[in-house]
Design a protein that fits this description.
Helices cover 72% and strands 2% of the residues. A two-stranded antiparallel ribbon has the order 1-2.
Length: 311
């Protein structure tokens, strides 16, 4: 059976489903597909602020940039700045995802038990998810203010010197990780709490009757029962954190200096802040980020398949 015949038969059998999906595919193609193709194309040119198509008053200047092949990728990969940003981005991602997962798991286990006011606690812990991210980040920025922030007022009130939260490279890195963990815990909490509630209670009762203590029940029942949920949320959280532009940009703008700048914020800087704006190199950074995340997802999925977890 030829490919065209298989497509025709599939469309004839499921024409209603294809009709329902078509608008979504069209919108995704416009919103995601075109910018992606355009970005890949620009990464293969020398496009910058001086040679792209633009209007100056009533004068229209055509584009004069040229195709340069893989020169931009060679320049990025041979630049020490890329590897420095990549190292911090990986450390930032691993630190945030690890702390978010462990905190979400601990809170989910606590809220999965019967306790007074459990509904209130659940709503309170989900609150950071409901508040727009930029409002939360500006609130954290106020807390971190070295002179008038609440955190330093509490420290100085206890006789401890004020901490330069956003003005010292080490403290700034810890500060952005703390803010991002606070934003990410609600998602992890909800996902893991749903996974915990899907584990049959009879398993815990049987294990308790066999003399298993709390740690043994957690290790032998809870963790295996959460494996499917955990694998998915960890991958999603890693992708989101790797590309977490708002926290870094709104909290520190990559500072002090470039201490907290990750790959996506540097790509943004090349295209919208530095002068002259280098669109082609910024696009090359974006394509490399996409390739790295795709490779991580593929490797992660293969590792899960070997463990019997298929998604």
């Amino acid at each position: 059976m030829t490919f065209a015949l298989r497509v025709r038969r599939a469309f004839g059998t499921h024409w209603y489903a294809w009709t329902m999906v078509a608008p979504v595919v069209l919108v995704l193609g416009v919103i995601i597909g075109y910018p992606l193709v355009r970005g890949v194309f620009l990464s293969l040119t020398d496009a910058n602020e001086a040679n792209v198509e633009r209007n100056i008053g009533v004068n229209h200047l055509p584009a004069t940039y040229k195709f340069t092949g893989l020169d931009n990728y060679q320049a990025v990969l041979s630049d020490a700045v890329f590897w420095d940003r990549l190292g911090w981005t990986v450390l930032w991602t691993v630190g945030c995802v690890s702390l978010t997962f462990l905190t979400g798991l601990a809170l989910a286990n606590m809220l999965n038990r019967k306790l007074c006011g459990r509904t209130f606690y659940r709503l309170a812990l989900i609150l950071p998810w409901a508040v727009p991210a930029f409002i939360s980040i500006f609130t954290w920025r106020m807390l971190y203010n070295e002179k008038s922030g609440i955190l330093n007022k509490l420290l100085t009130g206890g006789g401890i010197d004020a901490v330069p939260w956003l003005n010292d490279p080490t403290w700034a890195k810890l500060s952005v990780i703390a803010a991002n963990v606070w934003l990410g815990v609600p998602f992890m909490l909800v996902a893991l709490l749903g996974g915990l509630q899907s584990i049959p209670g009879e398993l815990y009762e049987a294990a308790e009757m066999d003399g298993a203590n709390a740690w043994q029940r957690f290790r032998s029942i809870t963790l295996p029962g959460l494996r499917a949920v955990s694998s998915t949320v960890i991958l999603l959280s890693a992708i989101w954190t790797f590309n977490m532009f708002p926290v870094i940009f709104l909290l520190t703008r990559g500072g002090p200096g470039d201490a907290t700048e990750i790959l996506v914020t540097y790509a943004y800087r090349l295209s919208f802040i530095d002068s002259p704006r280098n669109f082609s190199e910024s696009a090359a950074w974006g394509v490399l980020i996409l390739v790295m995340l795709s490779l991580v997802a593929v490797v992660y999925r293969r590792a899960l398949r070997k463990q019997g977890e298929v998604w």
